[in-house]
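The protein record quoted in full:
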Amino acid sequence: MNSNRIRVGLVGCGNAGRGIHLPLLNRKQANYQVVVCADAMPESAKKLASDSGLRAAASVDALLGDPEVELVVCATKPPSTHRDIAVAALARGKHVVVEKPMAGTPAECDQMIDAAGKAKRVLSVHHNRRWDVDFLMTAEAVASGKLGDLRLVRNEYLGDFAGSRYDWGIHLADQTMCLSAGRKFVEVTATFATANPKSPMDSDGFFTARLRTEDGVLHDLSMFPGVMGSHVMPGKMPKRFVVVGTKGMVYQDWCQRIEDAFGKTRDFVSAEPKTWLNDPSSMICQFAVPDFYDALYDAIRHGKPNPVPGDQGRRAVLAWELICQSAVAGKTLRVDL
């Protein structure tokens, strides 16, 4: 057993804490040990502790002050709860992971980033969909240069479960920021089926948004109800990603994890004869989602890059906020993103 394991305190014992972070960390027991949990509802913490062999802290504040804890994982809802927990944990010398979205507003994100800088600790945002196979394959195609200069990137997800706009919209925004390869966005146009002018972040129903970069690359992100097929493709779901460049196009099927890959494809259409993409390494090697915690361990223990630093988490929050504002206003917004 690794004597240099990171001891973890889990804050939030609901679906994200119990169902996502705890299983991921337990798969990485060579590098992590979850030792204690806490929740705003103490009974939830006691139940998870009993079920999982953990200690239940008397309160969230008690966990943040626990000398055994080196890393605090904040898996609470709503995202407006993240700022206070993260800032308090960082002030006590803990490294911090927060579930996405990073916080409720960009201003809250700024306070968290400032606290991490002062504490000289790692603050990371759990944007785990960066490790989905369909995204890895799309990003790999973009990075290959075989597509030429990018002109259009489409990022579309089908889903219509309760809270899906909150749960998936921020993922699409984050993936879009990554695929923009550092470009600045200057324009956004969006629409929701049900816009909420009093609380744009709570807008619901299907949505679609178009972001334009300063050099004219269009990034479309959409979320539609999950229907099997259409009059164009009967019985077949739309592509998860479509990327258009001056030298070719890539169509990528939905494929979150390696075990989802059977029957899924990545198709490359070249504008130049006898040009093709190599077999994607991301399809050959490993399961996708747990890689966030591998990278985080290296960041904390070996000073390697933070897998999702705070400024990137903030950018996704700001992007989603601007998308909601455009939808509520019903017009294109000039932005600095």
The chain has two domains: 6-126, 130-286+319-334. The radius of gyration is 21 Å. The mean pLDDT is 90. The longest strand covers residues 185-194.
